């Protein structure tokens, strides 16, 4: 990105943390403005940076913008961050992280880590990414309440593993029989993600 400090002779050495921060802000704003990027419709402006600050900061920025440089800093930073032509080029809106249907594939692993406690590696199973996305859409509504039950196992077989046949039945207290057309390569992963740890699971073809 931008080099704010250097170790060359005569380089600025801040005498306090606040002085250093002020210098970073000034240098950043100066550098961004020196780029002379023409005004346009910026993706980063959709975040409405000003509204992310407390009311008293918003008022101060409106009345005396030069005295509240942190707002300008973040406005220009998000413009740079999300712009495909002049900046880093993230190419997505921050709001998209809240919409599972739109979230870029590279962010799905974070959701998988939360849902499956780090046990589903989508780099190892990239073919499951789209199924995982669809699974997430109804996970909290349809799965959480039946997790660990035969019904929950059927849900996971169909939504995450793409099975068209999924029948789970209890043979006795800790023994489950699964009749499914799921790819047999996923059996170990399925047991890890969807079955109680102490259960003995038997698979059969339909």
Descriptive keywords:
3 strands; 3-stranded mixed β-sheet; mainly alpha; 7 helices; elongated; 206 residues
Report on this model:
The protein is mainly alpha-helical and 206 residues long. The chain folds into 2 domains: 17-96, no CATH class; 120-204, no CATH class. 40% of the residues lie in helices and 9% in strands. The protein has helices spanning 17-34, 55-63, 69-82, 108-115, 129-143, 150-159, 187-194, and strands spanning 166-172, 175-180, 200-204. A 3-stranded mixed beta sheet has the order 1-2-3, with helices on one face. Helix 7 links the parallel strand 2 (175-180) and strand 3 (200-204). Helix 1 (17-34) packs across helix 3 and helix 5 packs antiparallel against helix 6. The radius of gyration is 26 Å and the shape is elongated. Mean pLDDT is 78; it is low at 1-14.
Number of helices: 7
Radius of gyration: 26 Å
Number of domains: 2
Query: How do the strands line up in the largest sheet?
Result: 1-2-3
Average pLDDT confidence is: 78
Q: Low-confidence spans: pLDDT under 50, at least 5 residues?
A: 1-14
Specify the helix fraction band: 25-40%
Main beta-sheet annotation: 3 strands, mixed
Indicate the proportion of strand residues: 5-15%
Count all strands and give the number.
Answer: 3
Secondary-structure element sequence? HHHHHHEEHE
What's the end-to-end separation, in Å?
57 Å
Structural class: mainly alpha
Shape: elongated
């Amino acid at each position: 990105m931008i080099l704010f400090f250097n170790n060359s002779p005569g380089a600025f050495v801040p005498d306090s943390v606040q002085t250093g921060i002020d210098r970073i802000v000034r240098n950043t704003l100066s550098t961004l403005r020196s780029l002379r990027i023409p005004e346009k419709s910026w993706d980063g402006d959709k975040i409405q940076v000003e509204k992310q600050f407390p009311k008293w900061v918003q008022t101060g920025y409106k009345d005396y913008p030069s005295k509240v440089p942190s707002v300008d800093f973040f406005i220009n930073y998000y413009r740079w961050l999300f712009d495909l032509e002049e900046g880093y080029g993230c190419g997505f809106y921050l709001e998209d992280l809240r919409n599972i249907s739109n979230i870029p594939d590279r962010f799905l692993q974070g959701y998988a880590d939360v849902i499956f406690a780090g046990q589903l590696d989508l780099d190892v199973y990239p073919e499951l990414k789209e199924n995982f996305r669809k699974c997430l859409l109804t996970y909290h509504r349809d799965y959480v309440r039946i997790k660990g039950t035969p019904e929950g196992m059927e849900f996971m077989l169909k939504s995450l593993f793409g099975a068209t046949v999924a029948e789970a039945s209890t043979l006795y207290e800790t023994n489950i029989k699964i009749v499914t057309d799921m790819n047999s390569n996923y059996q170990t992963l399925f047991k890890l993600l969807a079955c109680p740890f102490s259960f003995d699971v038997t698979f059969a073809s339909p």
